[in-house]
Amino acid sequence: MFGFGVHVRIFPICFCTRTKITALLVIDMQNDYVADDGKVGKLGLDVKKIQAVVPTMNKLIEAARKAGTMVIWIRQTHLLKDSLPNYLASNVAKVKGKQFKEEDFLVQGGSPGAEYYDKMIKRLDGEIEVIKHTYGGFTNTELDTYLKARGIKTIMSIGCLSNVCVQSTAMQGWFLGYYSIIPADAAGSNDTALHDATLKNHKIFFGFTPNTDEIIGIWNKMAK
User: Fold this and answer.
1) The CATH number of the domain where 116 resides is what?
2) Which long-range contacts link 45-51 to residues 24+ away (Cβ below 8 Å)?
3) What is the DSSP letter of 116?
4) ∠178-183-189 over CA atoms, to 5°?
5) What is the extent of the structural domain holding 21?
6) Which of 25, 70, 152, 158 has the greatest CB tally within 10 Å of its CB?
């Protein structure tokens, strides 16, 4: 059984010398979560904190493309027919005083709120998109199949919310045997305390939390 110390020694070899086995996962950067007029913003939560890290996310995506690192876009959508019972229980139950309707869902399938936030860099035609219906990007999707088919060993999770869907995807990947990175400055949340706790927990138990400039610096050295 491998201990944490072994994990730490092996990881830099994978990350620093073999970018072809790393995939950058862009998670849930959608209007309902990020835009001022999205449903989260209308609930009074601070979407500005998420918007503030968009330029850093875009910078990392551009650097990944230049380095030849795979970029995968993960987008969440919800309809009553495709939502897991436990998701419904924890979210629909929070709507009090009225009958829940499908349009009350965050990122309702087919709605403008489910589309990508317009300040995000555009997804290229050749970049895979994965549609999920719960927090984690591996749950009932083909993400693991796509990664294994391309020899990916390391996942780098960016997007929002850092303490919900980014964390869930990063942890799921770790449980499946992937090395896991959450770039500290390329994931966003409307709750700073939960964001900081997520990064601390991930760094201690699951993977690594370098900043974007550190990652790009490594890629640039590899290109020389």
Assistant:
1) 3.40.50.850
2) 45/190, 46/190, 47/190, 49/188, 49/189, 49/190, 49/192, 50/160, 50/161, 50/188, 50/189, 50/190, 51/119, 51/188
3) B
4) 110
5) 4-223
6) 158
Mean pLDDT by 10 residues, the chain (224 residues): 40 53 96 96 93 98 96 96 85 66 90 98 97 96 97 96 98 96 96 97 93 90 78
Q: What is the DSSP letter of 43?
A: T
Structure tokens, 222: 């590899």
Please say whether the beta carbons of 185 and 173 come within 8 A: no
Tokens of 7: 């994990």
117-144 as b/e, with b when 16 or more CB fall inside 10 Å?
A: beebbebeeeebebbbbbbbbbeebebb
Rounded Cα–Cα distance for residues 83 and 133 (Å): 6
Distance linking the first and last C-alpha atoms of the chain? 37
Please give the model's pTM, rounded to 2 decimal places: 0.91
**Rounded CA separation 213/63 (Å):** 10
The token pair at 14 is 């994978």
Rounded CA-CA distance 60/24 in Å is 9
What's the domain count of the chain?
Answer: 1
* Count of Cβ atoms closer than 10 Å to residue 81 Cβ: 8
The CB-side HSE value for 40 (13 A sphere, CA atoms) comes to: 25
